[in-house]
Amino acid sequence: MSDMKQVVICKAVRETASSILQTMISYAEEILQLLELPYRVSCRGLQRRYGWKNYKQFDIETWMPSRGSYGETHSASNLLDFQARRSKIRYKDEEGQLHYPYTLNNTAVASPRILIPLLENHQREDGSIYVPEALRPYMRGITELR
């Protein structure tokens, strides 16, 4: 299994990057809703001033009954031009001026991390595991695991 990542390179416009970041978060939320899992979104806020690579980062945490708490299963970040500068990625604007683009990253699904809440939240008292509707086409129609 591997993680499904999203990477976006966009013009160095904060409003554009913020809009893209919100869209990326909405994709991760939609996945969790389709998997019928309880989750919450938390913002780590503006961190660039502390020397961190991420300008703004949101963690999406999914409820894990065995822990009795939420655990991070997704993370979405706006890195501004940090990665572009390190990678020497640049673009020319309409006037021919060079700029470092902004980069954004999102873990849409981290396979190992999502398995814990998927199994725990859908386990029934008899030990069987309910298979959410969204997964059934990939499970040959199986509705539960025994």
Question: Could you explain the architecture of this structure?
Answer:
The chain has 146 residues and is α+β, with helices and mostly antiparallel strands. Helices cover 26% and strands 34% of the residues. The strands form three sheets. It has a five-stranded antiparallel sheet. A hairpin with a 4-residue loop joins strand 3 and strand 4. The longest helix is centred in the N-terminal third of the chain and has 21 residues. It is elongated and about 65 Å long.
Key terms for this structure?
five-stranded antiparallel sheet, alpha+beta, 9 strands, 34% strand, two-stranded antiparallel ribbon, 146 residues
Précis, in short:
The chain is α+β, with helices and mostly antiparallel strands. It has three helices and nine strands, in the order βαβββαβββαββ.
Q: How much is the average pLDDT? A: 91
The dominant shape is elongated
**CA-based gyration radius:** 19 Å
- Helix content range of the residues, please? 25-40%
Specify the structural class: alpha+beta
Spell out the helices and strands N to C: EHEEEHEEEHEE
| Beta strand % | 25-35%
- From the N-terminal CA to the C-terminal CA, the straight-line distance is 22 Å
The residue ranges in which pLDDT falls below 50 over 5 or more consecutive positions are: none
Strands ordered across the widest β-sheet: 1-7-4-3-2
